[in-house]
Amino acid sequence: MEAQIFHHALKINQETCYGCTHCMNVCPTEAIRVKEGKAFIYEHKCIDCGMCLKACPVDAIQIEQDDFNSIFNYKHRVALYPSVLTGQFPSKYYASQIASVLLDLGFTHAFEVEHGSDFLKNEIPKYQLESDYKPVISSFCPAIIRLIQVRFPSLAPNVMQLKPPVDIAAEFYRKLLNDKGLKDEDIGIFYITPCAAKIAAIKSPVGESYATINGVINMDFIYNRIFRALKQGMTGTSKLPDQPTLSPDAIKWSLTNGEAVHSKGRSIAIDGVHNAMDFLEQLEDEEISNIDFIEIRACDESCAGGILNTNNRFLTVERLKIRADRYASDSEKASKSNPVFEKEEYLKENSRIGAVKPRSMLKMDEDMARALLKMEKTRKLMCFLPGIDCGACGAPNCQALAEDIVQHKAALSDCVFMQAHMQTHGKMSKDRAYKQIERILGEKRLEKNCKKRGAKDDSNF
Ligand code: SF4
Ligand code: SF4
Fold first, then answer.
1. Judging by DSSP bridges, how do beta strands 61-63 and 38-41 pair with one another?
2. Which of 116, 171, 405, 443 has the fewest CB atoms within 10 Å, i.e. is most exposed?
3. Which residue ranges form the domains of the chain, and what is each CATH number?
4. Shortest-distance ligand to the CA of residue 42
5. Span from the CA of 40 to the centroid of ligand 1 (angstroms)
């Protein structure tokens, strides 16, 4: 199988991390371990969903982004922004004002990503008709594509080979500027992202070339800049762009069921990474059938719940629905006047991605015989481990510890219950057991320390 390099947007700051295991316990792919009191990520398992970032009580997990000033490396600077950015702001601010401030901040063009979805609304049913695989799984959410690659490889062929709206919008805008005579090297297209998975996907694309997008700016960063500018009255400047109106369907595309509703036949829309895992497990086991199209998004409430959003996800959903309703009477007009249709033929030729390939078909080893042997060893080890899944060993559960032991990344004595058992049977000294705990949870972890969250002792005890 062809080796792929997976870029990851999340990094753990080892200085700040204190090994509390919160991130490890929420990671859907069991990608996190704790050793010597610090968390680290098994990169081959990480899908950049951002659940760990939300769970960290001390902000030790950070998301990289391109330096904002890198936009000025280009003469023509395009901000591609998702409709959830406008949904971050109270309804008194209009989408055109937000676009205007993006220009004030230094972009020369601003374009809403969801313009690309009106094009997809026509293309998805056609794709479904020609696809050999059922159900067709949406390619919208990059965290879900990675999840399928890592955990559900047999479903990889079901992933729709059509680009998501952001890439359709980028293809369109670059073509638009090229056709106006602007040179490719002078055009910088920057995506304002609500999630980490999109950063990772843009830096190491799956099944496609992202050469159309030059950089990524995190939404929380730009939100603060825009909000400050709006408060200082920077709106309504002469640079206010003549923004094409998004159609109501496009405004709602990144919300749950925004895409599935336009597919053919029976469709299901799922949000939340754990819901997605449950569903995909049942689909893989063929417990679910007769579905034509599945929209799956890793975040609760889809992009409205992206980890880089600043505002409450439910309010964001409400605002986008209000915005869509405001344009409802002009719905057809807005769809028809969408500028992406000026380049429809070009987009049809450039809207496909290659097949999504599994990261590995085998969980424990690339070699089938060795993988089977390792699985057998894991099952044997599970006969000894207590099955309590406490996480004190630095792995998220007993099964993960057993797999780590088989892969020579951990020892049976990492389990605190096994340590007690070994001590009782004279196979481990108290000193060694204590050191083993420190090796996992960090030195002096079991000594009194009132700096821990929730700890306080005013007595001299
Ligand atoms: S981003 Fe998601 S998959 Fe990656 S380590 Fe964090 S919780 Fe796990
Ligand atoms: S949640 Fe806890 S273990 Fe994970 S990075 Fe934050 S401090 Fe470290």
1. unpaired
2. 443
3. 10-63 (3.30.70.20), 68-349 (no CATH), 368-441 (no CATH)
4. 1
5. 10
